[in-house]
Amino acid sequence: MNEFELINRYFKRSNTACVDNESTGNRVDVGIGDDCAVVNVAAGEQLALSIDTLVEGIHFPPNANPYDLAQRAFCVCMSDLAAMGAQPLWYTLALTLPEDDATWLDGFSQGMFSIADKYKCHLIGGNTTRGPLSISLQVHGSIPQGQAILRSGAKPGENIFVSGPLGDGAMGLAMIQHRVHVSEEARDYFYSRFYRPEPQVQLGMALRNVASAAIDISDGFLADLKHVCEASGVGAEIELGTLPNSQHRLAEHEFVENENLAGHWQQWMLSGGDDYQLCFTVPSDTDMRSDLLNTCHHVGKITQNPSVVCKLDGQIVEPKKFGYQHF
Ligand code: ADP
Ligand code: MG
Question: CB–CB of 244/168 below 8 Å?
Answer without folding.
Answer: no
